[in-house]
Design a protein that fits this description.
By secondary structure, the protein is an alpha/beta fold. It has helices at residues 2-16, 19-26, 30-44, 60-87, 99-116, 133-136, 168-174, 180-183, 222-230, 240-249, 278-290; strands at residues 49-51, 56-58, 91-97, 120-126, 140-144, 152-160, 162-166, 187-191, 199-204, 207-212, 214-219, 235-239, 253-255, 264-271. 43% of the residues lie in helices and 26% in strands. The longest helix is centred in the first third of the chain and has 28 residues, at 60-87.
Amino acid sequence: MDRLDEINAFIAVADQRSFTHAARRLGVSSAQVSKLVARLENRLGARLLNRTTRDVSLTDTGRAFLERARQVLEDFQSLESSVREQAGPHGLLRISAPVTFGTAELTPALLEFAAAYPDVSLDVSSTDRMVNLVEEGFDVAVRIGQLGDSSLVARKLAAVRMVASASPDYLARAGAPTTLEELAGHTAIIDTNVPDPSLWRFGVNGAPRDVRVEGRLRFSGAQACVAAARAGFGVTRTPAFAAAEDLRAGRLTALLCDFEPELIHLHAVYPHARHLAPKVRAFVDFLAKRYAGEPEWHKGWR
């Protein structure tokens, strides 16, 4: 096992071109990574890496060794996976999920999964930051919207509508916008968890139409925006799952539904692997089954 640890450390350093980044990826100290690589080089009697104060690069010997080392590690992981397949899903599953979706929708699903798979432990990180799954040691992430990392495997789980909404009290005072031009004159409650928060995208006859909005309340999260809209401060625009409960109860009114933009989607993403760990496969399959068909967050308010 020590030799596999050495090989794993060497591959991580070669991939990251940094002992520090390799240590972060492996969840150990830089000193431990350096020790493992040095021990490997001493045992082989060859220098595998060139080290400078600014960079780490492969020697010719290291480049040749890297290809074989990857194969050895993959073969060992395949062997482990074949045994795990027989044992069924188990072990620690580290999950990254967006804050609002995690609170509003994912937590009940996670509890159902935990009940169904008692041999799997869950470590769930709720963050709207785009985490690096490999470097930060996550097994799977739940993401909404555009996917930027093509090195990950993505499985589409469900569609998500963006919905503009306001409270009946606000609409009684300010009137309900029926056109996109009218919307621009209303007080907006802005969710800053998007690249251009003041630009709301709608659709007109299948073509995108952007509306520039203004407002004095800005929050980095859909839940706070929904709460402010519920309190009558203006019009907000959030994913449907954040507002669905208030829309169904009549505390909010959906606006401009005829100008719906292209749907965004919910995905489960995970790193490429020749043999997917049973715990990851079980979790992704569980989510796909749970969110199959029309999502609950689209029902009862349109």
